[in-house]
């Protein structure tokens, strides 16, 4: 748009509940996406644009500020404002990153600063500055036993390992319990980190048929025999992405079938402490064949990339410890020391309770705004929206990104391509409830067919 009087890109300006400054940003993004606006095109002065739109100058200034943040435009003193040649940067609101929301009543940065200071004063430098590779120090493993007590009771420390996050521990489990080319059984929609791990380590994944209660025992038996699998990965509580919590009866059926088939169960359990009451963990139902992994990153903060693992026996832990040494060497002592101190003092539990309360508040906001059909749980960090018909999650993802929203389409979770379509919304990354509400209302506009792309209604 070298001619400043050409305001055709404003035809993309939508009606709706979103603030006008965001609709101006949306129109800029749509104009650049469609080619109506080209890199180097100059925009009219802000006062002129405000006059044409019938809004005050501060609204246009706010829109241009946000558009610059998203790398849609740039300004040069004395020359004006121009469309940039690069791709838009991060969205205005991230509904894709599944992290715990900031807990009300706690300043995590302040707690981290004071916690590290206190830890350095109490602990010997040798303990924090030296290596203790493998499954962790005795004190760290004791803290892990305490943290996992809700899932399987207090376990002896020789059955506990500590790692730098659940992903590191899952990698150690796959490397120690399976060989290259082996098949791991899991839900047809599963944790993307497992998909990435399988690809990186040369393992295969096989999706098992499921119903409304989770994986079906008969389908599990058929899949295990067909693939010769020895490992079953489960995320049975607030499942990612579907939010399902497998009921106790189905858990016991699966445990019996795993025993019949000689399967080891890997129970990935990042979310159960967000529930006030969760069904018994596989760690307590069938401890002799369960490797249980629980991270603090999903119920406290990603800063605490500390996770604990419980295994059936010390020999299994030693094999997993050897894999830890060969990959991540050990959990970082300073961060792990802080996490363990918070577990011992009870602060970790208090923060988790506050995160749970904030998650419940955000779920209430989502229920108020979103249409029917979203699967959720009161304290889940995410929701799942199954899709059918002509509307595809990939199309929704593209449309949402052009509106400044990031969401997670089913392809990110699919072990069996095309088995199910849908989208996951994560509620924790929004900086405030108000920002979350703003983003959800924008998504409703897309779902309702009100986007620029004229998507059909769901």
UniProtKB/TrEMBL annotation:
SMART domains according to UniProt: HTH_GNTR
CDD domains for this protein: AAT_like (cd00609), WHTH_GntR (cd07377)
Recorded superkingdom: Bacteria
Coiled coil stretches, renumbered: none
Keywords: DNA-binding, Pyridoxal phosphate, Transcription, Transcription regulation
Keyword Hydrolase applies: no
SUPFAM superfamilies: PLP-dependent transferases, Winged helix' DNA-binding domain
One Pfam family it belongs to: GntR
Gene3D superfamilies: Aspartate Aminotransferase, domain 1, Type I PLP-dependent aspartate aminotransferase-like (Major domain), Winged helix-like DNA-binding domain superfamily/Winged helix DNA-binding domain
Domain HTH gntR-type: 18-86
GO molecular function: DNA binding
The keyword Ribosomal protein is assigned to this record: no
PANTHER family: HTH-TYPE TRANSCRIPTIONAL REGULATORY PROTEIN GABR
Family named by the database record: In the C-terminal section; belongs to the class-I pyridoxal-phosphate-dependent aminotransferase family.
The protein, known as: DNA-binding transcriptional MocR family regulator
UniProt organism field: Mesorhizobium shonense
């Amino acid at each position: 748009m070298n001619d400043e009087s050409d305001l055709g890109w404003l035809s993309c300006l939508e009606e709706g509940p979103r603030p006008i400054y965001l609709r101006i940003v949306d129109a800029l993004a749509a104009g650049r996406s469609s080619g109506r606006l080209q890199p180097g095109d100059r925009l009219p002065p802000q006062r002129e644009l405000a006059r044409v739109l019938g809004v005050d100058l501060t609204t246009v200034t706010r829109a241009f500020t946000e558009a610059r943040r998203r790398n849609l435009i740039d300004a040069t003193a004395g020359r004006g404002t121009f469309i940039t040649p690069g791709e838009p940067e991060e969205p205005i609101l991230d509904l894709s990153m599944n992290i715990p929301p900031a807990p009300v009543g706690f300043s995590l940065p302040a707690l981290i600063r004071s916690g590290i200071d206190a830890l350095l004063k109490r602990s010997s430098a040798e303990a924090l500055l030296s290596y203790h590779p493998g499954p962790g120090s005795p004190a760290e493993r004791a803290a892990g036993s305490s943290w996992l007590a809700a899932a399987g009771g207090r376990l002896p420390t020789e059955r506990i390992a500590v790692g730098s996050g659940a992903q590191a521990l899952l990698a150690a489990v796959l490397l120690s319990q399976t060989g290259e080319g082996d098949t791991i059984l899991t839900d047809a929609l599963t944790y993307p980190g497992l998909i990435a791990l399988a690809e990186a380590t040369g393992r295969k994944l096989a999706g098992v048929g499921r119903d409304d209660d989770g994986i079906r025992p008969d389908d599990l038996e058929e899949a295990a025999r067909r693939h010769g699998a020895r490992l079953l990965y489960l995320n049975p509580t607030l499942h990612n992405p579907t939010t399902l919590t497998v009921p106790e009866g189905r858990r016991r059926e699966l445990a019996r079938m795993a025993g019949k088939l000689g399967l080891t169960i890997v129970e990935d359990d990042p979310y159960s402490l967000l529930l006030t009451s969760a069904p018994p963990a596989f760690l307590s139902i069938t401890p002799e064949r369960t490797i249980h992994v629980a991270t603090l990153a999903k119920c406290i903060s990603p800063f605490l990339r500390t996770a604990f693992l419980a295994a059936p026996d010390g020999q299994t832990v030693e094999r997993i410890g050897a894999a830890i040494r060969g990959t991540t060497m050990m959990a970082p002592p300073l961060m792990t020391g802080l996490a363990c101190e918070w577990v011992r003092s009870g602060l970790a539990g208090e923060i988790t309770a506050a995160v749970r309360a904030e998650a419940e508040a955000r779920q209430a906001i989502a229920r108020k705004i979103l249409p029917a059909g979203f699967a959720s749980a009161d304290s889940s960090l995410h929701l799942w929206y199954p899709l059918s018909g002509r509307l595809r999650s990939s199309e929704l993802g593209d449309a949402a990104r052009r509106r400044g929203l990031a969401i997670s389409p089913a392809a990110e979770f699919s072990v069996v391509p095309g088995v199910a379509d849908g989208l996951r919304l994560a509620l924790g990354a929004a900086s405030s409830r108000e920002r979350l509400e703003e983003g959800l209302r924008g998504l409703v506009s897309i779902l309702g067919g009100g986007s620029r792309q004229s998507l059909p209604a769901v």
